[in-house]
Amino acid sequence: MEDKIIKKCVCISADVIDSRVKSKHKELLHIANELNLKYENEIITKFTVRAGDEIFGVVHDFDKGYRVFKDLFKLSKTHQVPLYVGVGFDDIFNQNLIDPNTVNGKAIWNSADAIKILKDSKKIAHLKTLDKNFLFLFLVGHKFNHYMAINYLLYFIIEKVIKRTEKQNKAIELIENNPDKNYKEIGLNLDYDINNAESNISKLLNRAEYNIVKEAEENLINLINILYENERNQ
Q1: For residues 66 and 111, what is the distance between their CA atoms, to the nearest angstrom?
Q2: Dihedral of CA 203/69/82/155: which sign?
């Protein structure tokens, strides 16, 4: 039987920071289950907990992989689990893609390398200053200055996301989960008066810098795709 090859995959590995201090096995199981439920149709290899302190999973499509990464960030805060997060972008292959112990490919290798760089490299020390409880690195391609450009952009995106208020986050969540609803309807869901519901949502989004962050995220995915294609053509 020949290996199956799936292009443009995202492998996400997450190790608990200081796992020897306190076990987070139960919390990791909750996180893995929530990701598997939400992204059931996009997952190639289900998120599982390995060695008691690591989450591992593979998603098809770079954009979906980025969405999983964002949800992992939120879930790590909800469940209070500090994480090293390595995100590898590329292809995967194997005869049994659903088995986390046998699936292979450059996306998996990139994810593992990202974790190693996070733990060992002093070159990215400045990226670790954003949030000591969520240390991340995206890896696509093999050129340091190329994939670091992605991570600098991601740093500034996450920096803005962290500063958002609870109400701003709720408004953004409602907008992204209900694309058919307008600002007025979203405002009413947040209990704003019918006369100023739309304007209040606009104010929340402006203060959250929603549009510029959204555009930055779109450009981030475009850049990842460009680096991926460049790797293919070399």
Answers
A1: 13
A2: negative
